[in-house]
Design brief:
It is built from 33 helices and nine strands. The protein is elongated. A five-stranded parallel β-sheet has the order 3-7-8-1-9, sandwiched between helices. The protein has a two-stranded antiparallel ribbon with strand order 2-4. Strands 5-6 form a two-stranded antiparallel ribbon. 64% of the residues lie in helices and 6% in strands. The protein is α/β, with parallel strands linked by helices. The protein has five domains: 291 residues, no CATH class; 68 residues; 35 residues, no CATH class; 178 residues, no CATH class; 86 residues, DNA polymerase, domain 1, CATH 1.10.150. Helix 13 links the parallel strand 7 and strand 8.
């Protein structure tokens, strides 16, 4: 019960721990159909990541990062670095533990009216980061630091401890040159100019001195070059302060030559690259890593073309190798998949929704449905006038408010004093307990990291298991598996669940990632069998329990024919799965997962999109509603597929059909597999039934599935004899 009360916080904690461990760029798919749960998870993620950043800074001993609070000293130091120095990338400053997270919230629904939603995303990102760091700092960086050709290359990591290198002109440091010019201007040239004007005035009265005129001309010439440079620098800085990147992107949107012919996204990508370089510069200055967490919500409310545009922008603009961005796409996956499939240009498998998302998402995280306790808690918060996305620290206040308001009025002064004494007495105990708790947390985190490392080793150490054989060569898929393993183990440990062997956890994550459709089908078949057993138990008043030791491969084998029959309706989901022969080898030989193990892993399977299972349930349920009602008395596909020739003959006798049909069944060796997998037209031709007899026969054995296959087989070549359609071994 206690774990359910804080389940959302635990999910957010596990995901935040993963986000703090991995290196950007990273794109997280935060899947849920409940927008309130998404907001709750995002809020908790932000709190946990900020707490982690504070914890790291607190324990940093060697090089303390600069304070985030703006001060005159820090501002002058930053301006000096921007004008006269360049950062040096060293192994030491690239491996710093201290980190700063900047959260950027982007609601796609607010920008849905824009012609190019992804351009709105880029503008909002620029505006938020500019407000965070300051307009002046951005303007100075663009004018004094940014070199488009040089900064477009990959950073060179050097050995050394020096973080800054002075800019030089003719081997002279720029700061020294500027200082020399200022000294000369103040102490030599300015007095000469003043004296020159004085002498020239005297010369006008009849005294001429050409020497002072020469000195004055020399002073003006000496001051002219640096003055012109200063004027140019000031003009460029003022231009960047007035015309920021927001206005630049809008101007390019209005320019049809750029937006249509030259490629607007290419121009915007340059601006995003400038933003990344500025963040890397600030990392060296602040002495901490800086990661930008972009929270994208309400994307599933937009039109298909705009959704695809935003996803492409994330993939193209924010996924540079040195990008500091972590993108959190919080959407309803079922709606998103339908919208993407409707977008123009979906001509191949990879262009369809799931293939398209698999190329972009590097960490899928499906938020489990609300448990009964959590639903009650949210309902109680709404009744008490509290926000349903309140953090857990507010739960106790809500409970106290809801339980009894009158209990507070009966407390007298003595009870208040007693409570104060008790509070002081427990303060010392609490302090001691906090120290012990902190030590236990450190030990627990170390144990969790060991489990995670063991799970990783079960994949990349070939002598331990065969998991490496099933890993995709796609690097995005590899990252998805790595991140999902970490989340799964952290959640199970946080829930105090006995974690199976690390190899089992890794194998389960790989199974979900490689064959999501077939595993969802197994989930649905097991769920339906359990419901049927519960119904039979209520009728017979005897306990009926599904065998927990039954292997998942046996479950799939029993229902594979039914999956083949509805193959056209689930084709887009089956396309997500990888090699079916490898699936058979995985479950049948190397990792023989059972129904009991599946039940244990299912609540902690976060990298599976449950919308696939829901669609399987809908298709399977619609077939039963159309063809297996009590009025028609239709046999289930599972029953038919296991029927022998003798069973078919016995069923024909019970239907009181003529004896000649029984003889035809025996003669043509028509069993249950033949009935389900053969062309209904050929089957009717062999049986030579009247329309009334054929209708009764079809409803009894084939239900509603025959009509669907009649349409499918019209495109098939006509067979001379009724043949059995062989089911592929992978299904």
């Amino acid at each position: 019960m206690a774990k359910d009360l804080y389940s959302e916080n635990i999910y957010a904690y596990a995901l935040s721990k993963t986000l703090t461990k991995v290196h950007p760029p990273l794109t997280v798919g935060l899947y849920s159909s409940c927008h309130s749960k998404i907001k709750m998870i995002l809020k908790n993620i932000k709190d946990h990541m900020n707490d982690e950043a504070k914890r790291r800074e607190k324990h940093e001993q060697k090089s303390k990062p600069r304070p985030l609070k703006v001060s005159i000293g820090n501002l002058l130091s930053l301006i000096t670095r921007l004008l006269f120095y360049r950062p040096v990338w060293t192994k030491k400053n690239q491996n710093r533990e201290c980190v700063r997270y900047i959260f950027v919230k982007f609601s796609a629904w607010h920008f849905a009216g824009s012609d190019m939603l992804w351009a709105g995303l880029a503008m909002h990102l620029w505006q938020t980061l500019q407000d965070n760091f300051g307009k002046l700092q951005f303007g100075l960086y663009r004018v004094a630091q940014y070199d488009e050709e040089k900064d477009s290359k990959k950073k060179k990591i050097e050995d050394g401890t020096q973080n800054w290198r002075s800019k030089k002109i003719l081997c002279i440091p720029l700061w020294a040159l500027v200082l020399m010019i200022l000294i000369v201007s103040l102490f030599i040239l300015i007095p000469i100019v003043i004296l020159g004007f004085t002498k020239q005035k005297q010369a006008g009265e009849g005294q001429k001195d050409s020497g002072y005129g020469v000195l004055e001309g020399f002073a003006i010439a000496a001051l002219g070059v640096p003055a012109a440079g200063a004027v140019r620098f000031t003009f460029m800085l003022g231009k960047n302060l007035i015309f920021n990147q927001d206005l630049n992107i809008r101007r390019r949107l209005d320019n049809k030559k750029i937006s249509e012919q030259l490629g607007l996204m290419h121009e915007v990508r340059k601006e995003i690259r400038l933003l990344s370089c500025f963040i890397h510069f600030m990392e060296i200055f602040e002495r901490r890593k800086i990661k930008v967490v972009l929270e994208i919500t309400a994307l599933d409310r937009c039109t298909p073309e705009k959704i695809v545009g935003v996803l492409n922008a994330i993939n193209i603009l924010l996924s540079d190798e040195e990008s500091p961005f972590i993108s959190l796409i919080a959407v309803d996956p079922e709606v998103l998949a339908q919208q993407v499939d409707q977008a123009k240009g979906c001509f191949t498998k990879k262009d369809r929704a799931y293939g398209f998302l698999d190329r972009i998402i590097t960490l899928p995280f499906t938020i489990p449905p609300l448990c009964v306790v959590s639903k009650c808690k949210v309902f109680r918060k709404i009744v008490c006038g509290q926000s349903e996305i309140a953090v857990d620290s507010q739960d106790h206040e809500v409970e106290r408010f809801c339980e009894s308001e009158t209990s507070l009025s009966i407390e007298d002064n003595s009870s208040v004093n007693t409570s104060l004494i008790k509070g002081q007495a427990t303060a010392l105990i609490t302090k001691h307990n906090k120290i012990e708790t902190h030590q236990n947390d450190i030990r627990h985190e170390t144990e969790v990291e060991k489990l995670i490392q063991s799970a990783f080793e079960s994949i990349f150490l070939c002598n331990q298991s065969r998991l490496f054989y099933y890993i995709s060569e796609n690097t995005v898929s590899m990252r998805r598996v790595i991140n999902s393993i970490r989340v799964t183990i952290v959640v199970m440990e946080a829930f105090k669940i006995e974690v199976p062997s690390p190899e089992k956890v890794a194998a389960w994550v790989v199974l979900v990632d490689r064959w999501p459709c077939r595993l969802s089908w197994i989930f649905q078949c097991v769920e339906d069998e359990e419901q049927i057993l519960q119904t039979e138990e209520n009728k017979t008043e005897t306990s009926a329990v599904l065998d927990k030791n039954k292997s998942l491969w046996n479950v799939f084998s029993e229902h594979r024919v039914e999956l083949h029959v509805i193959g056209d309706e689930v084709e887009k989901y089956l396309e997500r799965d990888n090699d079916p022969e490898l699936f058979e080898m995985f479950l049948k030989k190397d990792f023989k997962f059972t129904v009991g193990e599946m039940a244990k892993f299912k609540p902690y399977t976060f990298n599976l999109d449950y919308s696939i299972k829901n669609e399987m349930a809908r298709i399977r349920g619609s077939k039963r509603v159309k063809g297996t009602g009590s009025f028609f008395n239709t046999l289930s596909p599972k029953t038919v597929i296991n029927m022998t020739v003798e069973d078919v003959c016995s069923e024909l006798s019970r239907m009181k059909l003529p004896e000649k049909y029984t003889e035809l069944v025996m003669e043509n060796h028509i069993n249950g597999q033949t009935l389900l997998l053969s062309d209904p037209a050929d089957l009717r031709q062999v049986m030579q039934m009247t329309i009334g007899e054929w209708t009764a026969f079809r409803i009894r054995f084939l239900g509603d599935m025959s009509s669907g296959r009649m349409n499918q087989t019209k495109l098939l070549p006509v067979l001379s004899k009724p043949n059995l359609i062989i089911c592929p071994s992978g299904l």
